[in-house]
Amino acid sequence: MTTTTPTATTTAAPTPAPSALTLGAARIGYEIRSYFRAPDSVFFTFLFPVVMLALFSVAFASMRDIQAGTASVDYATYYLPGLVATGILLSGTQALGVDIAGERSDGTLKRLGGTPLPVMSYFVGKIGMVLVTTLVQTAILLAVSSLLFGVMLPTDAGRWGTFAVVLLLGIATSAVLGIAISALPREGRRATATIVPVVLVLQFISGVYLPFLQLPDWLQGIASAFPLRWMASGMRSVFLPDAFASVEPGGSWHLGLGALVLAAWLVLGLVACLLTFRWNRKDG
After folding, report:
1. How many CB atoms lie within 10 A of CB 263?
2. Number of folded domains in the chain?
3. How do residues 100-142 score in pLDDT, each as one tens digit?
4. Residue 107 needs a FRET pair 20 to 30 A away by CA distance; which of 6, 61, 211, 270 works?
5. Angstrom distances, CA of residue 127 to CA of 27, 29, 96, 131, 179
6. Helix/strand/coil (H, E, C) string of 123-176?
7. Does residue 217 lie in a domain region?
8. Please, how many CA atoms are within 13 Å of residue 254, restricted to the half-sphere of its CB?
9. Is residue 36 part of a domain?
10. Strands 66-68, 71-73: parallel, antiparallel or unpaired by DSSP?
11. Which domain holds residue 95?
């Protein structure tokens, strides 16, 4: 007589679902590839600051340097800070605003809403894309300005510390504002017409192309309510001689106030994202 011993069976533990951050990190690569597959986005956001720096540097090459007090700089050096700040705004607010509005219009967001992808993962993918593209864009802009146009970059660690703070705070603020402003266009094809003019006007009133103090006081007041003015002045404090603080309002860079304004916009942008972002428009 033989006996059979029952064989114990073991059930494998279910694989835990990936976290929202893990899914978001995986989407960053997808978002970056999609970004560089759109030629208009690459030119009007990624390469635009480099093109503008080249144009200003060549156009004003024969003109006298810009002077403030006892210090003077050439035009490439003078325009570099504002264009670094502009690149942050373009890559964040403009690019994300237009991109997300288009995805909402063509049904991409609605399809994503039918998947297990959390909204937080979608945000992480978009903001991660902005972080990567802005860092690469800024590195190219600094390299071109130094190697081709002879701009002397700072050698002081304190200035580079200020640069890092303004850059990262500016990226975060611009990215969340891009997500928030994407809710404004009623249709994707209107996103460019809605968002780009706002960004363009901010460039002209925020001291990017014109000396800030040359603007009327009321226009300076309007610009000072928005992030680009403070990103531009923060970058000027990094790349321009200290004497150029004399041509800023109050004769100072006001870095602390600028950081507070950017932080306030970051919080407002986050709140707006939470209140307005939907996978699909309710009125659609």
Report:
1. 13
2. 1
3. 999 998 899 989 888 888 899 999 999 999 999 999 999 999 9
4. 270
5. 10, 12, 9, 6, 9
6. HHHHHHHHHHHHHHHHHHHHHHHHHCCCCCCCCCHHHHHHHHHHHHHHHHHHHH
7. yes
8. 17
9. yes
10. antiparallel
11. 20-59+71-276
